[in-house]
Design brief:
Layout (H helix, E strand, L loop, with lengths): L5 E2 L2 E5 L1 H20 L13 H17 L6 H12 L3 H12 L5 H12 L1
Antiparallel strand pairs: 1-2
Length: about 120
């Protein structure tokens, strides 16, 4: 069994919540790529750590609005590790977290401004 589907408190035990979360993130990325709005995104293998963090923030924010249990602070911390621990980065995190219709170019631009 993949650890992405496990109950973290009981190894080798299935977790429906973790499965929904892991599959949801992957399916949203597939949906993004298939939409055409992410046609200019690098391949998964070529994503930088910063690019991966910004896309994960976007995906997990959408999952939270769909009603999945997420730990927003975990993803906020991940974003801040890549973009800086400051008010500007926090503002950009919130913009990404609450958005539902961004393109890859828009995500990249927000990420760039968060770092600057």
């Amino acid at each position: 069994m993949s650890s992405a589907f496990e109950n973290l408190k009981k190894p080798m035990t299935f977790s429906a919540d973790n499965t929904k979360f892991s599959l949801g993130r992957g399916l949203l990325r597939v949906r993004d790529r298939q939409s055409g709005y992410f046609s200019d995104a690098p391949t998964d293998e070529d994503l930088s750590i910063v690019e991966a963090a910004v896309w994960e923030t976007y995906c997990v924010g959408r999952l939270s609005r769909l009603g999945l249990k997420v730990h927003k602070q975990r993803w906020h911390y991940n974003f801040r590790n890549r973009h800086g621990f400051n008010d500007a980065a926090d503002k950009h995190f919130e913009k990404i977290w609450t958005s539902g219709d961004l393109t890859w170019s828009q995500l990249s631009e927000i990420s760039h401004h968060a770092i600057a």
